[in-house]
Amino acid sequence: MAQNGLLVGLTGGIGTGKTRVADLLASLGAAVECSDKIVRELQAGGGAVLRAIAEAFGPEYLTPDGELDRAKLGKKVFADAQARMRLNALVHPLVTAELQRRVAAHRAKGTAVIVVDIPLLLEGRKAGVGTGAVLPFDVIALVYSSPEQQLERVTARDALSADDARARIAAQLPIDEKRALADVVIDNTGAWEATEKQVRELYALWSRRG
After folding, report:
1. Residues 111-165: tens digit of each pLDDT
2. H helix intervals, the chain
3. Quick one: which of 2, 43, 61, 157 has the fewest CB in 10 Å?
4. Which residues of 2-39 are buried (b: 16+ CB within 10 A; e: fewer)?
């Protein structure tokens, strides 16, 4: 049994509906932290991470007003595995430290369920690197949708071409491989009402364990 709050690692492939599940868990009472949001905070203008990115990738990845050009950098790292590894090496240690601080703060408050949303959690655990490999999760929950649904949702949501969407999906572990590595699978292939029912049942279970 978890002590001082059950720590849940929430993940999924791009376009699987993970953010919507995280929002539902927050509405049910879980403390939810998102690694991507922390990354954006750390990459804010004038920060050390932004300077490190400019040094590693070049000033052309900054906008004229000194902010990170996220679209340009995203296109680069999703198409280039080595560039993605360089970016992760810059960002992951700082994100991990901040998440550890926030988890400790939630546990100090007596929060029963703490959810950390990490898109590449299983990639990190498999490789033994990054935030996903460091935090001591009690449960790893995967939000699952079919590869065909991922492609449809990503192209519609992000206004990407099919080729660009496929490149982003291919930059992650295949969703069926992730499914085999997770402790819990939240099936989001059907109607949202069915997904919501699964999430509510899991939250009730996790609350009792926490």
Report:
1. 999 999 998 898 877 666 556 667 889 999 999 999 999 998 889 888 888 888 8
2. 18-28, 35-42, 48-57, 70-79, 81-108, 121-127, 131-134, 147-158, 162-170, 175-181, 192-209
3. 157
4. bebbbbbbbbbbbbbbbeebbebbeebebbbbbbeebb
> Of 1-10, 54-63, 108-117, where does mean pLDDT reach its minimum?
1-10
Q: Tell me, what's the pLDDT at 88?
A: 82
- Residue-averaged pLDDT of the chain: 88
Domains in the chain (CATH in brackets) are 6-40+102-209 (3.40.50.300)
Cβ within 8 Å of residue 148, ≥6 positions away: none
Give dist(CA 174, CA 172) in Å, integer: 6
Helix (H) or strand (E) holding 143: strand 139-144
Largest CA distance in the chain: 51
Task: Give CA–CA dist 48/102, Å, rounded.
Answer: 20
Residue 191 vs residues 15, 20, 186: alpha-carbon distances, Å: 15, 13, 12
3-state secondary structure of 155: helix
